[in-house]
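Task card 7
Instruction: Convert sequence to structure tokens.
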Amino acid sequence: MVSDSEIRAPQAVTTVRLLLRRPVAADAEGIFARYSSDPEVTRYVGWPTHKSVDDSRAFLAFSDNQWEQWPAGPYLVCARGDGALLGSTGLMFETPHTAMTGYVLAADAWGRGYATEALAAMVDVARTTGVRRLYALCHCGHRASAHVLEKCGFALEETRRAYAEFPNLRPGRLEDVLCYGRHFEKDGSPGAKC
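Output:
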């Protein structure tokens, strides 16, 4: 929960090519059309492919709740030049000092370095909000996602066997995941692995 002593993340972050911003209600249709309803895009995520815009609206309600309770929450990933919606990323806090991150991009945004750029921005947001441990989980078969994490300085901490369901891959079956982490000292500098 956010306290007076915690630093809130900015609601918009810019990188060289991207604008990452807090989602708003008017984004529901765009989220649905661009990535959340695409079975190929959502294959390796931990939430079901959206079947209707109402599912995207439910995500926006979740997002608002995260932003109200914690220093940050989900961000939409947009092209800085024309504002085109590319996907989403963000931080999901477990404690004031531990957060999970991830990313999902529309298929036409794959292979352009956007995931790496968005993840690097989330690392910076995590540091500024006082996160000491930032981690991400990815399916053992999703090598492209693991590569993005490694490029952003995340270290493979462990393989968690039969750990998480990927409802768009094999519903009801627990799959192995790779757990990658980054650790920061109290001042935000890289720290030793816990």
